[in-house]
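Researcher: Can you fold this with calcium ion in place?
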Amino acid sequence: MLQKLSILVIEDEKSICDFITKTLNAQNYKTTSAHTGKDGLAILTSALPDLVLLDLGLPDMDGLDIIQQTRRWSSLPIIVISARTQEREKVAALDAGADDYITKPFGTDELLARIRTAIRHSNKIMTDSMNNNRPYSAKGLTVDFDKRLVTVDGNEIHLTRVEYKIVSMLAKNSGKVITYSSLIDQVWGPYADDNNRILRVNMANIRRKLEKNPGEPVYIFTELGIGYRMIEDENIE
Ligand code: CA
């Protein structure tokens, strides 16, 4: 029998916590919950869940501290639950190592999709480290990492070095949001200016090359104030 995936929900608002655990239990996930950061950390270290859903605003501690403490010893997927107005907190959480975020109020479908993506991604990191550099493909866009080749509907797209670096990083993390500053770090190095303008300019050029209608992108989406998210690879199981 397949073992159920276990999800820890750290959320002090009881109604939200109940909604999440009921939803996940109905989908055959095993859930545990904590209403404080202290309890959450205790369960996290003792039960080692497969994924954590973490509210950033907890009564006893900042969710950001939980991410930082957890990242010292574990790479398990962490999805942050945040309010619509907490743009800066979301970015800080992602930069501290959270895998994704979901904004309150959210629906069942969105929650489940985020969880599936985060779990697939953590599995993919393991298979990739076994030297599996499988090409990315979605909706006619392909990125072949070995050949450094990008195509749309079979036609080669000529990207500059920087544009390719941006596209390949988003493709390797497809389905997940990547913050502006982590993209800048990866592409220009950790000592680069945290200047989003050059990134925006490159993204505009990338979209002109990839998208049929750059104003309504289907491959790379902007998450305003946060970063970019590439449509998920169709071949990920
Ligand atoms: Ca809260």
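Model: Folded with calcium ion in place. The helical segments are 14-26, 37-47, 63-71, 87-95, 108-129, 161-172, 180-188, 196-210.
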